[in-house]
Specification:
321 residues, alpha/beta, Rossmann fold, 2 domains, five-stranded mixed beta sheet, 14 helices, disordered C terminus
């Protein structure tokens, strides 16, 4: 059975065995408090990219998204699944009037950004505080399941998460000859090179693909660390993923140094340019799967075939079409 067929089967099953009047769900928010909805939300506003990613992964479009006033800040894989939404401004300071005008019945806000405005948001609609900013890859998956619960589609989200794990495992298998190689993702600006450790979200994705992130980046439990050229030379990663955020980044200056050509990533042709904005700021299943796909193509391996059959289908005894 195809993914589409499976989702239709699941939707029909939910229709048979549930009713809107019977809906009630409670989750624990990221402050440890219970959050309950008694009716399934139809008009959701999300105030972080990751929350939009989670809903888009199960083909739900929020009515409003905080996109920092530029839809291109959202990952292309997320944008491709969205329709009929409007911007509600910056993630840090979303436009409360615009949110209220959308008449939402659920607002998903970030526990680290939006606690100060929680009361104001709650006057507009029920508001749940979940983690996004600063979360790890695994923490994002845990939050994604909670979003499935409060969106009224727990089984659908669980199935999509199983498919995600299949996709990531397939990508890890395709990258098997690079297992054990050190891979560093860093964003280059005019003033510095900022590397992401294994504790940061991009590093967590790399580790999920069974790649190694240099331990020195995460010293003192840092998720983000500014590196000098000597730091890079000392780490000497096998693969360097560079997310340039400026045309004249510091990498352009370092490339003039004779020692630049001696770096393993440079001499082996494994200095790989990636989208620094999306890799650094976008979280979620769709963003992570795109990161895995980028690596497979950049490292010239045969990409894993799309995951069409979900583990849950096998568990249910459903055969592929």
């Amino acid at each position: 059975m195809s993914l589409l067929g499976y989702l239709r089967w699941m939707t029909f099953s939910l229709f048979l065995f549930t009713s809107p009047t019977a809906f009630s769900t409670t989750i624990t928010d990221s402050l440890g408090n219970p959050f309950t909805l008694d009716t399934p939300p139809q008009r959701i506003v999300t105030l972080e990219y990751a929350f939009a990613d989670a809903l888009a992964a199960i083909d739900i479009s929020p009515v409003g998204i905080a996109d920092d006033n530029d839809p291109l800040n959202l990952h292309p894989a997320v944008l491709a699944k969205l329709e009929g939404w409007v911007s509600v401004g910056d993630r840090a300071t979303p436009d409360l009037e615009q949110i209220a005008a959308l008449k939402p019945d659920l607002i998903i806000a970030d526990v680290n950004r939006h606690q100060a405005m929680y009361a104001a948001l709650s006057q507009i609609a029920p508001t749940v505080l979940l983690a996004s900013r600063g979360e790890t890859y695994q923490e994002n998956l845990d939050v994604t399941l909670k979003i499935g619960d409060i969106a009224g589609h727990p089984e659908l989200m669980q199935a999509r998460l199983l498919q995600h794990k299949n996709i990531m495992q397939g990508a890890a298998d395709a990258l098997s000859r690079f297992h054990g190689h050190s891979v560093l993702f860093a964003v280059a600006s005019e003033n510095g090179l900022y590397a992401y450790s294994g504790a940061a979200y991009p590093g967590g994705v790399l580790k999920a693909l069974k790649l190694t992130v240099p331990e020195k980046v995460g010293e003192e439990d840092r998720a983000l660390r500014q590196l000098t050229f000597d730091d890079i030379a000392s780490m000497d990663p096998d693969i360097l993923l560079s997310g340039n955020m400026a045309p004249d980044s510091i990498l352009a200056q370092w490339q003039q140094q004779p020692a630049w050509q001696t770096l393993k990533a440079v001499s082996s042709g494994q200095l790989i340019g990636v989208d620094g904005n999306h890799w650094a700021n976008c979280r979620g299943m769709l963003a992570s799967e795109a990161m895995a796909d980028t690596l497979q193509h950049a490292l010239a391996v045969t990409p894993a075939p799309p995951s069409e059959v979900l583990p849950s289908e096998r568990d249910l005894g459903i055969e592929p079409e």
